[in-house]
C-alpha cells in the first residue's frame, strides 16, 4: 500500500532513484528499530520482575522457615520445662533454659532485624526501579503490562509489610511466652526449695545408713574370722569355677571365630559390591568419553561446514567483483547511450527545422499562389472568358493542395505527439518496474537477515540445551555418589546402634571386641569414602575443565557464525546490487530500443512527407506548364477579335512573369536565410537544454546512489553492532552460568570434604569414647567378679551366714552393683545421645547445604530424620523398687550442645552414690 501511494503521488518530472521514492523503506527501518528497542526494554523489565519475584519467594521461604523454627523451639522449650522436675539439676537447668530462651529471643530479634533490612533493601530497589520506570515513561508511553507489574510489586510490598507486622506480633507472643516460662521457672524454684527441705530428711536417712554400714563392717570382721576355716572348701569351688570359666572361654572363642567368619563373608560381599560400583563408575567414564568423542566429531563437522561457508563467501566476493566490473561496463554503456540520445535529439531538431522549413516553403508557395491568383484574375479581366474555367480549375487545385498539406501537417503533429506520449508512458512504466524490483530486493534482504538471526538464535539455544544436559548429568552423578555415601553412613550408624547394647557379665568382652572390629571397619569405609571423594573431586575438576573447553568452543562457534552471517549479508548485498545493475541495464536497453523504434518511425514519416511534397511540387509544376501551354494556345485565337488587347496581353505577360520569377527567387532566398537562422537558434537552445538535463540527471543519479549506499552502510553497521552486543551478552551469560556452576561444584566438594572431616572427627571421638567405655567395662567386670566371689564365699559356708546374707541383701554390694550398672547405662545413653545429636547436626547441615544450592541445580533428596537410639531396658536387679526412679533418657535436639560424658557420669555417680 505504501509503495502504491508513493507511486501515485510522484510527479511526472521526478527523477528515478531519489530519496523521496523510498518512504516505505525508511518507515520499515524505523518500525524495525522501534520494535528492537521495545523488545530490549521489555526483556529488561521481565528480568527485573523475575529477580524481584525470586527475591520475594526466597524472602517468604525464609519467613516460613523462621516461623517453623520459632514454633519448634517454643514447643521444645515447653516440653523441656515440663520434664524438668528433678531437685538435683533443677537450678542449673532452669538457668540454662532461661539463657536458652534469651538466646532464642535474641536470634529471633536478629532475624527480625535482618528481615527489616531486607525489606528496606527491597523498598530501596523498588524505589530505584520506580524512578527508572518513571524516567522511561517520560520518554515513551508506559504499557499496560508495566502498570500491572508495578501494581503487583506494590501488592507484594504491602504483603511484605504485613509479614513484618506478623513477625512483630510473633515476637511479642514469644516475649509473653518467655514471661510465662520465667513464671514457671519461679514456680520450679519454689518446688526446689520444698525438695531441698525434703533432702534434709534424706540426709538423716543417710546418717542412719552410715550407722548400718558400720554395723556391716563389724559383721564382716566377724565373718573374716570364720572365712579362714572355709578356705579349703573355697579352693575346691574355685577350681570348679575355673574349669567352668575355661569351658565358657572355649565356647566364647568358638563363637568369636564364627562371628569373625560371618564378618569376613560380609566384608567379601561388600568388597564385591564396591567392585561392582567401580565397574559402574568405569562404565560411566566410558560413556562420558564416548559423549566427548561425539562432541569432538560434531565440532569437526561444524568446522567443515565453516570451511564450506568460507568457500561460499570467497565465491560471493569474486561474484561481487565481477558485478562491480559489470557495473563499470554498464556505466560506460550508459554514457554511450546518452551520447546517442544527444545525437538523436540533434537529428530530431534538424528534422523539426526541416519541417518548419517545409511549412515556410508551403507558406511561400501559398503566397505565390495567391499572387498568381491575383495575376490570373487580372489576366482573366484582360482576357476573355475562356480562361475563367482554367483559372477556376487552378484555384481548386491549389485549394486542394493546401488542404492536403494541412492534413499532412496535422497527421505528422499527431504522430509526433503520440510518439512522445508513448515514450513518456514507457519511461514511467520502466520507473515503476525498477522501483518494484528494488522494493522486492529490499524485502528479500530483510527476510534473509531475519532468517540468519533465527538460525543463530536456534543454534545458540541448542548449544545451551546441550550444555545444560551435560551439567544435569554431572549433577545427577554427584547426587548418586552422595546418596551412596549417605547409605554407607547409615549402614555405619546402624552397626553402631547394634553394637551399643546393655552389658551383661557373661558378654562384655565379646561386645567390646565386636565394637572394636566394627570401628576398624568404619575406619576402612571412611578411607574408602575419602578415596571415592578424591576420585569424585578429580572427576569434577575434569568435567569443569571440559566445560571450560566447551565454553571456548562455543565462543569460537558463535564468532564463526557471526562472521558467516556478515559474509552472507555482504553476499546478499552484492547480489542485490547486481540485480539492481541488471535492472538498470535492462531499463536502458529498453529505452534505447524504444528510441530506435521512434527514430525509425520519425524518419519514415519525414521521408513520406518529403516524397509527398515532391509529388505535389511535380504536380504543381505540371499544372503550371499546362496552364502556360493553354495560355500560349489561347493567344492566337484572340488575335482576330482584339489586336490591341492581345498585344497588350502579350506585352504584359512576359514582364510580369519575369518579375514574378525574381520575386519568387528573392522570397525563397530570404525564407531560406530566415529558416537557417531559426534552425541555428533552435539547435543552440536545444543543445543547451539537453546539456542542462544531462547534468541534472547525472547529479540526481549520483545523489541517489550516494543516499542508497549510505543507507545500506548504516543498516550494515547497525546490524553488526546489534550482533556484536548479542554475542557479547550470550558469552557473558554463558560465562556467568558456567562460573556459577563451577563455584557450586566447588562448594559442594568443599562441603562434602568438610562433612567427611566432621565424620572422621566424630568417629575418632566415638573411638576414644568406646576405648574409655571399654576400660570402664573391664574395671566393672573385675569389680563384679570380685563381688560375685565374695557373695559366693558369704553364701556357701553356714546357714547363719546365708540368713545374714538374705537379711542384708539390700546392703552395699548389691547397691554398688546397681549403681555401677546405672552409671554404665547412663554413660552409654549419653554416648548414644551425643552420637544422635551429631547425626542430627550432620543431617541438618546436609539439608541446609541442599537448600542453599542454586535454583538451576536439581532438588536434592530430603534428609531422613535422625532416629534416636533407644537401648533395651535392663531387668531390675532386685525385686523391690529402687529408691531413685530411673528417668527416661532425654534425646537432645541437634541445636543443643553435647555434654561431656565424663561430667555426666560423675553427676550420675553423685546421684546414685548418695542414695
Distance between the termini: 109 Å
The number of helical runs is 11
What is the β-strand count?
0
Largest sheet: none
Over all CA atoms, what is the radius of gyration? 61 Å
Q: Categorize the overall geometry.
A: rod-shaped
List the secondary-structure elements in sequence, H or E: HHHHHHHHHHH
Q: Kindly state the mean pLDDT as a whole number?
A: 67
Question: Unreliable runs, pLDDT <50, ≥5 residues?
Answer: 1-23, 502-511, 635-653, 796-811, 854-915
Query: Into which percentage range does the β-strand content fall?
Result: under 5%
Features:
rod-shaped; mainly alpha; 915 residues; disordered N terminus
Describe the structure.
This protein has 11 helices and no strands. With 915 residues, the protein is mainly α. The longest helix is centred in the last third of the chain and has 153 residues, at 643-795. The two termini are 109 Å apart.
Amino acid at each position: 500500500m505504501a509503495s502504491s501511494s508513493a507511486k501515485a503521488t510522484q510527479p511526472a518530472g521526478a527523477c528515478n532513484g531519489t530519496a523521496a521514492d523510498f518512504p516505505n523503506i525508511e518507515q520499515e527501518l524505523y518500525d524495525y528499530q522501534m520494535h528492537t528497542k521495545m523488545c530490549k526494554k521489555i526483556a529488561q523489565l521481565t528480568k527485573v520482575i523475575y529477580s524481584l519475584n525470586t527475591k520475594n519467594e526466597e524472602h517468604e521461604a525464609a519467613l516460613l522457615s523462621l516461623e517453623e523454627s520459632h514454633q519448634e523451639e517454643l514447643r521444645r522449650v515447653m516440653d523441656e520445662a515440663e520434664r524438668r522436675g528433678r531437685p538435683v539439676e533443677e537450678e542449673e537447668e532452669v538457668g540454662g533454659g532461661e539463657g536458652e530462651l534469651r538466646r532464642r529471643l535474641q536470634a529471633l530479634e536478629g532475624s527480625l532485624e535482618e528481615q527489616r533490612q531486607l525489606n528496606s533493601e527491597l523498598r530501596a530497589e523498588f524505589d530505584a526501579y520506580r524512578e527508572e520506570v518513571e524516567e522511561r515513561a517520560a520518554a515513551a508511553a508506559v504499557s499496560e503490562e508495566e502498570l500491572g507489574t508495578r501494581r503487583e510489586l506494590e501488592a507484594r510490598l504491602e504483603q511484605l509489610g504485613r509479614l513484618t507486622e506478623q513477625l512483630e506480633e510473633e515476637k511479642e507472643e514469644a516475649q509473653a511466652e518467655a514471661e510465662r516460662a520465667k513464671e514457671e521457672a519461679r514456680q520450679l524454684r519454689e518446688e526446689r526449695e520444698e525438695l531441698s527441705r525434703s533432702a534434709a530428711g534424706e540426709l538423716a536417712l543417710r546418717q542412719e545408713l552410715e550407722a548400718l554400714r558400720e554395723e556391716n563392717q563389724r559383721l564382716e570382721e566377724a565373718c573374716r574370722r570364720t572365712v579362714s576355716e572355709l578356705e579349703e572348701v573355697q579352693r575346691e569351688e574355685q577350681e570348679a569355677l575355673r574349669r567352668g570359666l575355661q569351658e565358657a572361654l572355649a565356647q566364647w572363642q568358638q563363637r568369636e571365630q564364627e562371628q569373625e567368619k560371618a564378618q569376613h563373608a560380609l566384608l567379601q560381599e561388600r568388597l564385591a559390591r564396591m567392585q561392582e560400583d567401580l565397574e559402574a563408575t568405569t562404565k560411566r567414564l566410558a560413556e562420558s568419553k564416548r559423549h566427548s568423542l561425539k562432541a569432538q566429531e560434531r565440532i569437526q563437522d561444524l568446522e567443515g561446514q565453516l570451511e564450506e561457508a568460507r568457500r561460499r563467501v570467497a565465491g560471493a566476493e569474486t561474484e561481487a567483483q565481477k558485478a562491480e566490473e559489470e557495473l563499470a561496463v554498464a556505466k560506460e554503456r550508459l554514457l554511450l547511450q546518452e551520447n546517442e540520445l544527444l545525437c538523436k535529439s540533434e537529428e530530431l531538431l534538424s528534422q523539426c527545422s526541416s519541417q518548419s522549413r517545409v511549412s515556410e516553403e508551403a507558406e511561400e508557395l501559398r503566397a505565390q499562389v495567391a499572387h498568381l491568383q491575383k495575376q490570373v484574375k487580372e489576366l482573366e479581366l484582360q482576357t476573355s472568358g475562356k480562361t475563367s474555367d482554367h483559372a477556376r480549375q487552378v484555384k481548386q487545385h491549389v485549394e486542394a493542395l493546401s488542404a492536403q498539406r494541412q492534413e499532412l501537417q496535422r497527421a505528422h503533429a499527431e504522430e509526433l505527439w503520440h510518439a512522445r506520449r508513448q515514450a513518456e508512458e514507457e519511461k514511467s512504466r520502466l520507473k515503476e518496474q525498477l522501483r518494484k524490483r528494488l522494493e522486492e530486493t529490499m524485502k528479500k534482504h530483510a527476510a534473509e537477515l531475519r532468517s540468519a538471526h533465527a538460525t543463530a538464535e536456534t543454534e545458540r539455544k541448542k548449544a545451551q540445551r546441550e550444555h545444560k544436559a551435560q551439567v544435569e548429568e554431572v549433577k545427577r552423578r554427584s547426587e548418586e555418589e552422595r546418596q551412596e555415601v549417605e547409605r554407607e553412613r547409615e549402614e555405619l550408624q546402624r552397626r553402631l546402634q547394634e553394637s551399643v547394647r546393655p552389658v551383661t557379665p557373661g558378654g562384655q568382652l565379646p561386645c567390646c571386641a565386636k565394637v572394636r572390629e566394627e570401628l576398624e571397619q568404619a575406619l576402612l569405609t571412611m578411607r574408602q569414602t575419602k578415596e571415592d571423594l578424591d576420585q569424585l573431586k578429580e572427576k569434577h575438576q575434569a568435567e569443569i575443565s571440559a566445560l571450560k573447553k566447551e565454553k571456548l568452543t562455543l565462543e569460537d562457534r558463535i564468532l564463526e557464525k557471526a562472521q558467516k552471517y556478515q559474509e552472507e549479508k555482504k553476499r546478499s548485498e552484492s547480489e542485490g546490487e547486481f540485480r539492481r545493475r541488471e535492472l538498470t541495464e535492462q531499463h536502458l536497453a529498453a529505452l534505447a530500443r524504444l528510441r530506435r523504434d521512434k527514430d525509425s518511425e520519425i524518419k519514415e514519416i519525414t521521408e513520406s512527407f518529403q516524397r509527398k511534397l515532391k509529388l505535389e511540387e511535380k504536380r504543381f509544376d505540371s499544372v503550371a506548364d499546362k496552364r502556360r501551354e493553354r495560355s500560349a494556345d489561347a493567344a492566337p485565337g484572340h488575335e482576330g477579335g482584339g489586336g490591341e488587347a492581345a498585344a497588350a496581353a502579350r506585352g504584359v505577360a512576359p514582364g510580369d512573369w519575369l518579375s514574378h520569377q525574381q520575386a519568387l527567387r528573392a522570397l525563397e532566398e530570404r525564407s531560406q536565410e530566415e529558416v537557417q537562422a531559426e534552425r541555428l537558434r533552435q539547435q543552440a537552445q536545444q543543445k543547451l537544454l539537453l546539456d542542462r538535463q544531462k547534468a541534472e540527471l547525472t547529479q540526481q543519479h549520483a545523489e541517489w546512489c550516494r543516499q542508497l549506499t549510505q543507507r545500506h552502510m548504516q543498516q550494515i553497521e547497525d546490524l553488526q553492532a546489534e550482533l556484536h552486543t548479542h554475542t557479547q551478552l550470550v558469552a557473558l551469560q554463558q560465562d556467568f552460568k558456567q562460573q556459577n556452576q563451577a563455584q557450586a561444584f566447588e562448594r559442594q566438594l568443599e562441603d562434602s570434604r568438610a562433612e567427611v572431616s566432621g565424620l572422621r572427627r566424630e568417629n575418632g571421638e566415638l573411638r576414644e569414647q568406646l576405648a574409655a567405655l571399654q576400660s570402664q567395662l573391664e574395671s566393672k567386670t573385675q569389680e563384679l567378679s570380685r563381688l560375685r566371689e565374695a557373695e559366693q564365699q558369704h553364701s556357701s559356708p553356714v546357714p547363719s551366714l546365708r540368713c545374714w546374707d538374705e537379711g542384708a541383701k539390700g546392703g552395699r554390694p548389691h547397691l554398688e552393683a546397681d549403681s555401677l550398672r546405672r552409671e554404665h547405662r547412663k554413660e552409654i545413653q549419653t554416648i548414644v545421645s551425643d552420637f544422635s545429636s551429631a547425626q542430627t547436626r550432620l543431617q541438618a547441615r546436609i539439608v541446609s547445604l541442599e537448600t542453599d544450592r542454586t535454583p538451576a541445580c536439581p532438588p536434592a533428596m530430603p534428609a531422613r530424620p535422625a532416629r534416636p537410639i533407644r537401648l533395651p531396658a535392663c531387668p531390675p536387679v532386685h525385686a523391690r523398687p529402687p529408691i531413685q526412679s530411673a528417668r527416661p533418657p532425654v534425646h537432645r535436639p541437634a541445636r543443643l550442645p553435647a555434654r561431656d560424658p565424663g561430667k555426666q557420669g560423675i553427676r550420675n555417680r553423685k546421684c546414685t552414690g548418695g542414695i
